[in-house]
Amino acid sequence: MPSSERLGAYVKRTHQALHATKQAVLKPAGLTVPQYAALLHLSEHPGISAAGLARACAVTPPTMNTVLKNLQERGLVDRTPHAWHGNVLETRLTEAGQTVLADADARAVRVERALAEEFTEEERTTLIALLDRCVDLLEAVRPGPEPK
């Protein structure tokens, strides 16, 4: 198959460009894209575990533990034992974390808005539908775990 027909390359290139742009706009806020994603999800789901946050942010649990350790060292999140499950740490934004997130989110939203404004409303609707179809297909053809 010619490389011009490999849709995955276009999707990856788009993802890399979006990630690099967000990384650049988040730098003045003192955050990386994974740190921003973690803070954003924490603002919507306070008390979520590191494992749940890793799934929500599409990173491995060890990666999320590193992200959370760095955020905790900066005073942006607090981690406390769960009331019933002592080995599970609940994670919440601190006041400082909320302030940093507000700044970072305003920066990230500008990128998202610029991207959205590149398309008409009809094109955006079509693009979203097409990307949803891609996800549906890829999830349907993804092989399950190998039998033991």
From TrEMBL:
Alphabetized InterPro entries for the sequence: HTH_MarR-typ (IPR000835), MarR/SlyA-like (IPR039422), WH-like_DNA-bd_sf (IPR036388), WH_DNA-bd_sf (IPR036390)
Supply one GO BP term.
response to stress
Q: What is the lineage of its organism?
A: Bacteria, Bacillati, Actinomycetota, Actinomycetes, Kitasatosporales
The protein's name in its UniProt record: MarR family transcriptional regulator
**Could you tell me which residue ranges the HTH marR-type domain spans?**
4-136
SMART domains attached to this UniProt entry: HTH_MARR
**Which Gene3D superfamilies does the record associate with it?**
Winged helix-like DNA-binding domain superfamily/Winged helix DNA-binding domain
Query: Entry's PROSITE patterns?
Result: HTH_MARR_2
- Coiled-coil zones: none
Write down the superkingdom of origin.
Answer: Bacteria
Task: Name one molecular function that GO assigns to this entry.
Answer: DNA-binding transcription factor activity
